[in-house]
Amino acid sequence: MHDTATLAESRTVMSEILMPNDANNLGRALGGSILHWMDICAAISSRRFSRRQVVTASMDHVDFLGPIDLGDIVTVEGYVFETGETSMEVVVSVRAERPSHDEKGETATSFFTMVALDDDETPTAVPALDCPTDDQKTLRDDALRRREKRRTSLSASR
User: Fold this and answer.
1) Residue 143 pLDDT more than 60?
2) Which domain does 50 fall in, by range?
3) What is the pTM (predicted TM-score) of this model?
4) pLDDT at 1 exceeding the cut of 80
Protein backbone atom coordinates (compact mmCIF):
# COMPACT_ATOMS: atom_id res chain seq x y z
CA MET A 1 0.00 0.00 0.00
CA HIS A 2 1.16 3.53 -0.73
CA ASP A 3 1.45 5.86 2.28
CA THR A 4 0.06 8.90 0.46
CA ALA A 5 -1.81 9.77 -2.70
CA THR A 6 -2.58 13.17 -4.16
CA LEU A 7 -5.89 14.80 -4.83
CA ALA A 8 -4.80 15.12 -8.46
CA GLU A 9 -4.37 11.33 -8.73
CA SER A 10 -8.05 10.91 -7.85
CA ARG A 11 -9.47 13.63 -10.07
CA THR A 12 -11.93 12.21 -12.59
CA VAL A 13 -13.85 13.98 -15.35
CA MET A 14 -16.48 12.10 -17.35
CA SER A 15 -18.67 13.44 -20.15
CA GLU A 16 -21.88 12.12 -21.67
CA ILE A 17 -24.47 13.45 -24.08
CA LEU A 18 -27.97 13.18 -22.64
CA MET A 19 -29.61 10.65 -24.94
CA PRO A 20 -33.24 9.45 -24.99
CA ASN A 21 -32.56 6.36 -22.84
CA ASP A 22 -31.50 8.65 -19.96
CA ALA A 23 -34.33 11.18 -20.40
CA ASN A 24 -37.89 11.36 -19.12
CA ASN A 25 -41.01 12.10 -21.17
CA LEU A 26 -40.24 15.86 -20.93
CA GLY A 27 -36.85 15.36 -22.64
CA ARG A 28 -34.93 16.05 -19.43
CA ALA A 29 -32.44 13.92 -17.54
CA LEU A 30 -33.75 11.15 -15.33
CA GLY A 31 -32.51 11.76 -11.79
CA GLY A 32 -31.56 8.10 -11.51
CA SER A 33 -29.27 8.34 -14.54
CA ILE A 34 -27.50 11.37 -13.07
CA LEU A 35 -27.10 9.59 -9.70
CA HIS A 36 -25.71 6.54 -11.51
CA TRP A 37 -23.09 8.65 -13.33
CA MET A 38 -22.20 10.42 -10.07
CA ASP A 39 -21.70 7.07 -8.27
CA ILE A 40 -19.48 5.79 -11.09
CA CYS A 41 -17.39 8.97 -10.97
CA ALA A 42 -16.98 8.66 -7.17
CA ALA A 43 -15.94 5.01 -7.59
CA ILE A 44 -13.34 5.82 -10.26
CA SER A 45 -11.93 8.70 -8.18
CA SER A 46 -11.60 6.59 -5.05
CA ARG A 47 -10.20 3.57 -6.91
CA ARG A 48 -7.53 5.76 -8.49
CA PHE A 49 -6.70 7.21 -5.09
CA SER A 50 -6.66 3.98 -3.05
CA ARG A 51 -5.54 1.63 -5.83
CA ARG A 52 -8.14 -0.78 -4.43
CA GLN A 53 -11.62 -2.04 -5.17
CA VAL A 54 -14.17 0.25 -3.50
CA VAL A 55 -17.81 0.31 -2.44
CA THR A 56 -20.16 3.20 -1.83
CA ALA A 57 -20.85 3.61 1.89
CA SER A 58 -23.03 6.72 1.62
CA MET A 59 -24.16 9.52 -0.61
CA ASP A 60 -25.07 12.91 0.76
CA HIS A 61 -28.26 14.79 0.00
CA VAL A 62 -28.56 15.79 -3.67
CA ASP A 63 -30.31 18.89 -4.97
CA PHE A 64 -30.97 19.05 -8.67
CA LEU A 65 -30.25 22.71 -9.35
CA GLY A 66 -31.31 22.93 -12.97
CA PRO A 67 -32.57 20.84 -15.86
CA ILE A 68 -30.42 18.85 -18.22
CA ASP A 69 -32.09 18.69 -21.62
CA LEU A 70 -31.89 16.05 -24.31
CA GLY A 71 -28.69 16.60 -26.30
CA ASP A 72 -26.90 18.55 -23.54
CA ILE A 73 -23.32 17.60 -22.74
CA VAL A 74 -23.18 16.39 -19.15
CA THR A 75 -19.84 16.61 -17.34
CA VAL A 76 -19.41 14.77 -14.06
CA GLU A 77 -16.30 15.64 -12.04
CA GLY A 78 -15.05 14.19 -8.77
CA TYR A 79 -12.04 13.97 -6.50
CA VAL A 80 -11.05 12.71 -3.06
CA PHE A 81 -10.85 15.62 -0.63
CA GLU A 82 -10.59 13.86 2.74
CA THR A 83 -9.72 10.41 4.07
CA GLY A 84 -10.35 8.27 7.11
CA GLU A 85 -8.75 4.96 8.01
CA THR A 86 -10.56 2.93 5.33
CA SER A 87 -12.79 5.58 3.78
CA MET A 88 -12.49 8.40 1.31
CA GLU A 89 -14.72 11.46 0.97
CA VAL A 90 -15.36 12.33 -2.67
CA VAL A 91 -17.07 15.47 -3.96
CA VAL A 92 -18.91 14.99 -7.25
CA SER A 93 -20.31 17.87 -9.31
CA VAL A 94 -22.46 17.74 -12.43
CA ARG A 95 -22.55 20.44 -15.10
CA ALA A 96 -24.71 20.74 -18.19
CA GLU A 97 -23.46 22.40 -21.34
CA ARG A 98 -25.41 23.52 -24.38
CA PRO A 99 -22.68 24.61 -26.83
CA SER A 100 -25.18 25.81 -29.46
CA HIS A 101 -26.40 28.45 -26.99
CA ASP A 102 -23.03 28.99 -25.24
CA GLU A 103 -24.67 27.95 -21.96
CA LYS A 104 -23.09 26.09 -19.04
CA GLY A 105 -24.28 25.55 -15.50
CA GLU A 106 -23.92 23.41 -12.41
CA THR A 107 -26.86 21.03 -12.09
CA ALA A 108 -26.04 18.84 -9.07
CA THR A 109 -23.45 18.20 -6.37
CA SER A 110 -23.10 15.51 -3.75
CA PHE A 111 -20.58 14.07 -1.34
CA PHE A 112 -19.85 10.34 -1.34
CA THR A 113 -18.15 8.18 1.26
CA MET A 114 -16.32 5.33 -0.41
CA VAL A 115 -14.63 2.41 1.39
CA ALA A 116 -11.57 0.57 0.09
CA LEU A 117 -11.60 -3.23 0.13
CA ASP A 118 -8.79 -5.75 0.30
CA ASP A 119 -8.68 -9.01 -1.65
CA ASP A 120 -11.07 -10.60 0.88
CA GLU A 121 -13.54 -7.72 0.40
CA THR A 122 -12.83 -6.43 3.91
CA PRO A 123 -12.35 -2.71 4.53
CA THR A 124 -8.67 -1.85 4.28
CA ALA A 125 -6.44 1.16 4.92
CA VAL A 126 -6.29 3.96 2.37
CA PRO A 127 -3.41 6.34 1.70
CA ALA A 128 -3.28 9.70 3.44
CA LEU A 129 -4.36 12.62 1.27
CA ASP A 130 -1.55 14.83 -0.02
CA CYS A 131 -2.24 18.20 -1.65
CA PRO A 132 1.22 19.29 -2.81
CA THR A 133 0.09 22.24 -4.96
CA ASP A 134 -1.89 25.37 -4.18
CA ASP A 135 -4.53 24.30 -6.72
CA GLN A 136 -5.03 20.98 -4.94
CA LYS A 137 -5.20 22.70 -1.53
CA THR A 138 -7.79 25.12 -2.91
CA LEU A 139 -9.92 22.25 -4.29
CA ARG A 140 -9.73 20.41 -0.95
CA ASP A 141 -10.58 23.53 1.06
CA ASP A 142 -13.47 24.35 -1.30
CA ALA A 143 -14.93 20.85 -0.90
CA LEU A 144 -14.56 20.99 2.90
CA ARG A 145 -16.33 24.38 2.99
CA ARG A 146 -19.12 23.24 0.68
CA ARG A 147 -19.70 20.07 2.70
CA GLU A 148 -19.77 22.01 5.98
CA LYS A 149 -22.17 24.59 4.53
CA ARG A 150 -24.45 21.82 3.30
CA ARG A 151 -24.40 20.01 6.65
CA THR A 152 -25.16 23.26 8.48
CA SER A 153 -28.07 24.14 6.17
CA LEU A 154 -29.51 20.61 6.37
CA SER A 155 -29.34 20.67 10.18
CA ALA A 156 -31.04 24.07 10.30
CA SER A 157 -33.90 22.88 8.07
CA ARG A 158 -34.77 19.93 10.33
Assistant:
1) yes
2) 4-156
3) 0.93
4) no
